[in-house]
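Board notes, transcribed. Complex of a protein with MRU.
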Amino acid sequence: MPTPEDVPALPARPSEARVKRALEPEDIVRYEEDGPKVVLLDQRLLPDEEVELECRSVAAVVEAIRELAIRGAPAIGVAAAYALAMAAARGDDLGEAAALLAASRPTAVNLVWALEQMRDDPTPARARALHHEEVERCRAMAAHAAELFAPGTRALTHCNAGGLATGGYGSAVGALRAAWEQGLLERVWVDETRPLLQGSRLTAWELEIAGIPHAVIVDSAAASLMAAGEVDCVVTGADRIAANGDTANKIGTYSLAVLAAHHDLPLFVVAPTSTVDLATPTGAEIPIEERAPEELSARFPARNPAFDVTPANLIGAIVTEHGVHRTPYAQSLAALV
Ligand code: MRU
């Protein structure tokens, strides 16, 4: 049995050979007038291959969102905004296009939020502005979230809430980047995030590019790492935050919240106001996406809910571009939107 002393220390910096160029927002998703088309980095192939997918119809964007070629709450909102601009340029029925896009994934409220933002001005310029604003919101909330870190913090994150998920910079990963730049972060534990491995494929890749010390863990290792005193906080993004602060995020976030509470550790949610849904009173009303059983097992029956709801009382703080919000969230969130 290896003792903790036998476990090799994480490198302070990745080797030169592994340092790659940081992604710009338009590398993740963009609109091109020539076509017209929506071009996105196909996240299903990362980190092994960097391949762009060109979508020349709303149906193609819907398929890309459903199949997770683009994923993460703010990023699918941005993709939907570009798709609506494309539909307008093509002379498509915009009501039909918006309905198809809105139905592509049910849990992230950013999708319908972005379509609503595009309603009066379905142009590429408006979609690009929306994209730019989402990235700026990420930078602002990351700066606020960094206040929650003490020097030497060992953070655990789940799924991918990086630039790939937001269209640039990232929400939870943005917070980790800001904390790292301020010398407050020691390392990041990256949940692999079953079943589609957004953590071990996407978050680890982004942390490697950012030069942040990290290690992938199986989701079920979180409890023992917490018990061993190797985790200081949990930081995640969100797909929808209800008016009372209940938060939907990738399946497994609720388990982490329960574990964190048991070990007296804070769980911080970092998300833009485009993820806050005051029209949904509590988590019980958030629609939870059920994905194909085949994502878990090619042979046996399976149940595959893609998200869960963390009750507000297990969340230490919700950070938006406006600042750090504390319980009671019904009050602190109401003032935001
Ligand atoms: O199914 P996914 O990969 O779209 O799930 C994404 C997540 O759960 C993210 O944590 C969430 O969208 C926050 S992204 C800033």
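DSSP finds twelve helices and 14 strands in the chain. The CA atoms of residues 293 and 299 lie 9 Å apart.
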